[in-house]
């Protein structure tokens, strides 16, 4: 008899720093679908195969659940009763949910007025203490790093190494689903934890154990039985108004419609830079208009509704296929980090400008002409 899926710690126990003493706090995160894009590749006339790892289907609607099951389980093992994070929204939702499951208090620092309503609703419903600060994510992050010395709270931002451990499992899932590593992996970059976690996952899956590997420290858990020989080139994409990797340093007042990645001082800067350099990848940036256009295109061509920040990985894949940087026939994966339902305000705003939305009397003739008028 097969047993039900119990979450990623259970699934990858031998690859994670947990023991039988670790109380596993899980909401059955992970095991997300790898969806092949069918219409967009045709439109751009490529023979590249494009896949989306849809992380918006995690329990709180973003990839953050992968890291949070690890961070909260380890905090529980260490006896923590409260956790704290700074967040542009998704980390706060995940921290709040896993803290609720663990019976802990979550304190979340969020930038005033700059988080998507769905994420705020989640943190409130899961029972976190919401601390709205008159400042941005980077200010909140600076405060969180100092508060842990002043109050008995465990930090669950991605500077907590267990977060990246959990997040690396997405790379394992991709390699297992494809039977090999992709040639290119495209991913949005904000605080830069996720790209670092994926690179750790791909490196471990290849049992690389190379001297130059900055992450697995000669202890690749797949060393004896690598899942794959190769590792992908890592392509990190940022919003133009919040692109410290493109400016090669901090951005003082980051601004973008993609509030999830409105971050100017990424905490995992060095790790992410190493991942991109070592893999032979690159960083690039996109304007808000380009991000929103791809969010819409993914939804109305592929049936995948993600939040703005998440669409940027597909922006990158499409541009780099079109300009030939990614060659024909390549196998390309894109992490789509969060669910579109988190930020319906932005979605409705952009569709009101362009969408087909009419109001009519409740009469058969009116419905008939509305339909026939659009079927020509
Ligand atoms: C949808 O929630 O930083 O580069 O505080 O929510 O690992 O930071 C969110 C980040 C991409 C960037 N896509 O990932 C937070 C937070 C979505 C996100 C990112 C975030 P990282």
Give structural notes:
By secondary structure, the protein is of the alpha/beta class. Helices cover 40% and strands 14% of the residues. It is built from 15 helices and ten strands. The strands form two sheets. Strands 1-2-10-7-8-9 form a six-stranded mixed β-sheet, sandwiched between helices. Strands 5-4-3-6 form a four-stranded parallel β-sheet. Strand 3 (82-86), helix 4 (90-102) and strand 4 (105-111) form a beta-alpha-beta unit. The longest helix has 15 residues, at 288-302. The radius of gyration is 21 Å and the shape is globular. Residues 62, 64, 87-91, 158, 188-194, 260-261, 307, 309-310, 337-338 line the site of ligand AN7. Ligand AN7 is lined by residues 62, 64, 87-91, 158, 188-194, 260-261, 307, 309-310, 337-338.
Strand portion: 5-15%
Helical fraction equals 40-55%
Question: Regions with pLDDT < 50 over 5+ consecutive residues?
Answer: none
* Distance separating the two termini: 53 Å
What's the average pLDDT? 94
Gyration radius over CA: 21 Å
Q: Order of strands in the sheet with the most strands? A: 1-2-10-7-8-9
Question: Can you give me a brief rundown of this structure?
Answer:
This protein has helices at 8-11, 39-44, 64-77, 90-102, 117-125, 137-147, 161-167, 169-178, 193-205, 244-247, 269-279, 288-302, 308-322, 344-354, 364-372, and strands at residues 34-36, 49-54, 82-86, 105-111, 129-133, 154-155, 184-188, 233-239, 282-286, 331-336.
């Amino acid at each position: 008899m097969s047993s039900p899926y119990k979450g990623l710690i259970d699934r990858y126990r031998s690859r994670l720093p947990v023991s039988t003493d670790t109380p596993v706090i899980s909401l059955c995160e992970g095991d997300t679908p790898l969806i092949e894009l069918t219409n967009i590749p045709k439109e751009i006339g490529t023979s590249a195969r494009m896949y989306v790892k849809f992380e918006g289907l995690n329990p709180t609607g973003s990839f953050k659940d992968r890291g949070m099951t690890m961070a909260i389980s380890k905090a529980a093992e260490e006896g923590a009763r409260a956790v704290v994070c700074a967040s542009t929204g998704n980390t706060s939702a995940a921290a709040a949910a896993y803290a609720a499951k663990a019976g802990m208090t979550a304190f979340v620092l969020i930038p005033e007025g700059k988080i998507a309503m769905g994420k705020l609703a989640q943190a409130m419903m899961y029972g976190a203490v919401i601390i709205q600060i008159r400042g941005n994510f980077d200010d909140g992050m600076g405060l969180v790093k100092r508060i842990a010395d002043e109050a008995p709270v465990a930090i669950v931002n991605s500077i907590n190494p267990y977060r990246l451990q959990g997040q690396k499992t997405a790379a394992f899932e991709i390699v297992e689903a494809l039977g090999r590593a992709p040639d290119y992996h495209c991913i949005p970059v904000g605080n830069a934890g996720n790209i670092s976690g994926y690179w750790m996952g791909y490196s471990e899956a290849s049992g690389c154990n190379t001297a130059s590997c900055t992450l697995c420290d000669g202890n690749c858990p797949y060393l004896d039985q690598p899942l794959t020989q190769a590792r992908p080139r890592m392509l990190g994409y940022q919003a133009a108004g919040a692109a410290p990797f493109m400016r090669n340093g901090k951005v003082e007042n980051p601004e973008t419609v993609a509030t999830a990645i409105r971050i100017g001082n990424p905490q995992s800067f060095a790790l992410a830079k190493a991942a991109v350099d070592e893999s032979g990848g690159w960083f690039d940036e996109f304007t808000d208009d380009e991000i929103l256009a791809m969010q819409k295109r993914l939804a109305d061509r592929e049936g995948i509704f993600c939040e703005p920040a998440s669409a940027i990985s597909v922006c990158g894949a499409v541009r780099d296929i079109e300009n030939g940087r990614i060659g024909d026939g390549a196998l390309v994966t894109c992490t789509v980090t969060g669910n579109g339902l988190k930020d319906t305000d932005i979605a409705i705003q952009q569709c009101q400008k362009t969408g087909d939305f009419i109001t009519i009397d409740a009469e058969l003739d009116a419905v008939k002409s509305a339909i026939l008028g659009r079927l020509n």
